[in-house]
Amino acid sequence: MEYYNWTNCPKVIKAEVNTLLAEFSHLPDLHFSGMYLHGSLALSGFQPARSDIDIIVTTSKRISVQAEKAAVELLLRVSKFPAPIDIWFLAESDLASFQQPLPFTLHYNERLRESFQQDLSSDAWQHWNDQTRSDLHLAIYLTVLQRKGICLAGKAIDEEFPLVPEQVFLDALVASFQEACKHYLQDLVAFVLNSCRVYAYLRDGQLLSKNQGGAWGLAHLPEQYHPLVQQSLALYRSERLGRPIGRAVLNEFMTYMEQAILRQRTGSEEISWRDNG
Fold first, then answer.
1. What is the CA 269 to chain-centroid distance, rounded?
2. What residues contact residue 101 under an 8 Å CB cut-off, 6+ apart?
3. Which residues of 179-196 are buried (b: 16+ CB within 10 A; e: fewer)?
4. What pLDDT digit, counting tens, does each position of 3-26 carry?
5. Are residues 143 and 17 in the same domain?
6. ω into residue 162 within 30 of 0, thus cis?
7. Lowest-confidence range among 7-16, 29-38, 56-65, 178-187?
8. By the 8 A CB rule, do 234 and 242 touch?
9. Are 20 and 155 in the same domain?
10. What is the tally of structural domains in the chain?
11. Domain edge (last residue) among 164, 193, 212
């Protein structure tokens, strides 16, 4: 199985991203100022059959609800042709200094498609801006962007985005893992591989893709969990599966990772990071 980054990804993936870039830069009232890649395309872990295209768009002003509607209508047309889009819109005024949780003006991914379609078919979309929205996970995405991200348009990353404090990033990682534990059956593959990624960063300071996280797990986790990690990697890579793994092993894995991650988080104050592209 071949994995890609922005430099060598399939032409259809680049065409999808470039279509968004061209459309956003001309969308009325969007106040487009920059577009940036993070996630698997930045971490050299993009798998066309499973990966999202992870994007952050910056705007020079907070955008109107009409501009949000136009952006969502565009995303409903472009996303999944061929890859799903996961995109956040951030106003530069909210990026003047880092705050947690970081405000955002719009977030779209495929899990939200039906909700957006329902809002657009009624008058609900007119109320999208009634409340300020924020998300703890943005601390994670901005950290990946700052360390491995790619600027497609706009200011350089270190000029556009505030530095995320290391302790804030670590807290967000652990909070994200704890949240995933509550809903691990929704996507077992992502849960297992992301758990390995979180533990790898907390223990060794390694910022990894899902595929790299699974490989790290096979090298560092107890052997009793290797079949679960191997199965998760096989599913992620669209490879042939081995013997099915029972629920008991999964529950044991989750308990082990909860203890290991929390122990690692409370037992170390400063963790140096290194790139693993």
1. 25
2. 134, 135, 136, 138, 139
3. ebeeebeeeebbbbbbbb
4. 899 999 999 999 999 999 999 999
5. yes
6. no
7. 178-187
8. yes
9. yes
10. 2
11. 164
